Task: inverse folding
């Protein structure tokens, strides 16, 4: 099955009242585990990489891993650039075969964010690739992406989509990247207002650590893509640590990598079921 674009995935989820899980990958084992989880559940899946991940590897490498996994896959798979922070990086990901792009201009003024997002949309449209924008700012820290919470204004969100032509919109309603120190309080009334004014699929960032009830409440109000990152890294690392604790003399990366794989797969299955409202 070839790599697919995220717009069809998200529009289908929107019509069904479900969401697509989007999972950040850092290596081959994490990518394999997430695809295996999606095949076990029988649902589409989005693999995604952040700017720091593609500095560690490169967009061509992660696109290649994902492409290889599609060859025998039984479910639709997309490869998405998460928090693309420059026009140049977005261009590179497109050239290397990514089937979905996010440009995150949230650190900048509204005018600059909308202007560059519109440029990315125009470039991506030449290849028929959808673009996710972000308005407001999801707080916390993930990789080198760090920001303070700045909630999405519903009226500005409608104007942003009209100006940019973005295919989906990441909204800030109280979630945060990284590890939560307490229970986040989500502004569901704000989400409802955004949904009424914006007809493109909405995206929830910072879902690692959110409860099942919180995630499914957001899906009920129109979120069609849910991003998971930090908890996947923790799961993989815990799997490796667990194996090495039991086998301190181990030296073959394939052995402890398999343990990390199993931990990521189990977590991904759980999160995919949440997104499907099961």
Result:
């Amino acid at each position: 099955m070839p790599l697919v674009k995220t717009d069809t995935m998200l529009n289908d989820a929107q019509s069904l009242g479900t969401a697509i899980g989007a999972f950040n990958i850092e290596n081959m084992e994490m990518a394999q585990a997430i695809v295996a989880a999606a095949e076990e559940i029988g649902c589409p899946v989005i693999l995604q990489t952040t700017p720091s991940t593609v500095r560690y590897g490169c967009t061509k490498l992660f696109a290649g891993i994902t492409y290889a996994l599609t060859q025998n896959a039984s479910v639709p798979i997309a490869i998405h650039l998460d928090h693309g922070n420059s026009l140049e990086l977005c261009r590179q990901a497109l050239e290397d075969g990514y089937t979905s792009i996010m440009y995150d201009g949230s650190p900048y003024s509204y005018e600059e964010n909308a202007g560059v997002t519109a440029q990315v949309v125009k470039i991506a449209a030449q290849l028929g690739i959808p673009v996710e924008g972000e308005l407001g700012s999801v707080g916390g820290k993930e990789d080198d992406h760090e920001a303070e919470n700045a909630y999405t204004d519903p009226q500005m969100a409608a104007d942003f989509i009209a100006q940019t032509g973005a295919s989906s919109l990441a909204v800030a309603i109280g979630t945060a990247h990284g590890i939560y120190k307490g229970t986040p309080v989500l502004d569901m009334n704000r989400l409802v207002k955004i949904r009424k004014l914006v007809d493109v699929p909405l995206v929830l960032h910072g879902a690692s650590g959110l409860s099942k009830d919180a995630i499914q409440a957001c899906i009920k109000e129109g979120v069609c893509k849910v991003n998971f990152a930090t908890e996947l890294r923790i799961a993989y690392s815990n799997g490796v640590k667990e194996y090495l604790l039991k086998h301190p003399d181990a030296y073959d990366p394939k052995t402890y990598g398999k343990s990390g794989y199993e931990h990521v797969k189990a977590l991904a299955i759980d999160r995919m079921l949440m997104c499907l409202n099961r």
Observations:
- DSSP finds eleven helices and eleven strands in the chain.
